[in-house]
Amino acid sequence: MTPEKVEKALFIIFAVIAIASALNILLQRSPIYSALSLIGTLLSLSALYLTVRAQFIAAIQIVVYAGAIMVLFLFVIMLLNVPKDQPQIEKQKGLRYLAIPFAGALIAETFYVLRLVPARALPVVAPAMADQAVGTTWSIGVGLFTSYLLPFEVTSVLILMAVVGAMVLARREGD
Amino acid sequence: MRISNCESRNSQSAIRNPQFVMVPLSWYLGLSALLFTIGAVGVFIKRNAITIFLCIELMLNAVNLTFVSLSGFFGDVGGQLFVFIVMTVAAAEAAVGLAIIISIFRNRESLNVDEVDTLKL
């Protein structure tokens, strides 16, 4: 098999897994199964990041997203003992038939933009420069601490605010 | 300037080595569009606050895929740095959102968003 066919096969395999587990999020009634399906989507997206040579983001996707954030979700779901999603209460039945054309329109809009996408190849990196290619820890680190230093610092302030806010919100009354 | 440099390098390498034209960029963007639509549909049809939250995370990830694939194909690291920051914001959002969900559950014993409608006119 040529490298092109291998890459296309890998893309199709992981894209199908991603879409199937994304649909499974909608089909499951119990939130814990939805969360586990989302982890499947996150893992297959991480494999897709590797096919566009974004190694650092692929690793961070697994460690931070599938690891830390989803564990937080599962922890809260198990802590709250969340009931299953109730069967839908129909208030306005007409809206249901309006929903299908709207979803179709959203897909059509997003695919309409793809007309303008040029046919491109991934940049080929010389072996001597492989350590400094886009997507390695080196290039991310250099970018983060030079031209993107201000967004980086602002993000750290945001995280601090989120930590304080979460503690205030989740505190019991009267503590 | 930087982008145009990459562009010329890309097209040259593509002409010299036709086997390096791998998966087209539009496939990645199409997958991202599909995942975003699934996430948007989930936000509207789900009643459970936590599942709605999961669908929002799915939409964030669909946009991240766009950023990463464009960054890879154009050879500019900016998109990947943006994804790094989006992930941090998603972590902050998850922490605050789940804290709000915990306090809603404590007050109402339910996570059904149809029952949490105090702000509704």
Output the keywords.
heterodimer; A: 175 residues; mainly alpha; Four Helix Bundle (Hemerythrin (Met), subunit A); 2 domains; 71% helix; B: 121 residues; Helix Hairpins; elongated
Commentary on this structure:
The complex is a heterodimer of chains A (175) and B (121). With 175 residues, chain A is mainly α. Chain A has two domains: 3-122, Four Helix Bundle (Hemerythrin (Met), subunit A) (Up-down Bundle), CATH 1.20.120.1200; 127-175. Helix content of chain A is 71%, strand content 0%. Chain A is built from six helices and no strands. Chain A is extended, with a radius of gyration of 21 Å. The mean pLDDT of chain A is 86. By secondary structure, chain B is mainly α. Chain B has a domain at 47-110: Helix Hairpins, CATH 1.10.287. Chain B is 77% helix and 0% strand. Chain B has four helices and no strands. Chain B has helices at 2-16, 25-45, 49-74, 78-108. In chain B, helix 2 (25-45) packs antiparallel against helix 3 (49-74) and helix 3 (49-74) packs antiparallel against helix 4 (78-108). The longest helix of chain B is centred in the C-terminal third of the chain and has 31 residues, at 78-108. Mean pLDDT of chain B is 82; it is low at 1-19. Classes of the chains: A mainly alpha (175), B mainly alpha (121).
Structure at a glance:
Chain A is mainly alpha-helical. Chain A has helices spanning 3-27, 31-51, 55-80, 93-113, 137-145, 149-170. Chain A is extended, with a radius of gyration of 21 Å.
> What does the average pLDDT of chain A come to?
86
Rounded to an integer in angstroms, the radius of gyration calculated over CA atoms of chain A is: 21 Å
CATH topology of the largest domain in chain A: Four Helix Bundle (Hemerythrin (Met), subunit A)
Count of extended strands of chain B: 0
- Can you tell me the overall shape of chain B? elongated
CATH architecture of the domain at 47-110 in chain B: Orthogonal Bundle
CATH architecture of the largest domain in chain A: Up-down Bundle
How many separate domains make up the residues of chain A? 2
Instruction: Tell me the series of helices and strands of chain B, N- to C-terminal.
Output: HHHH
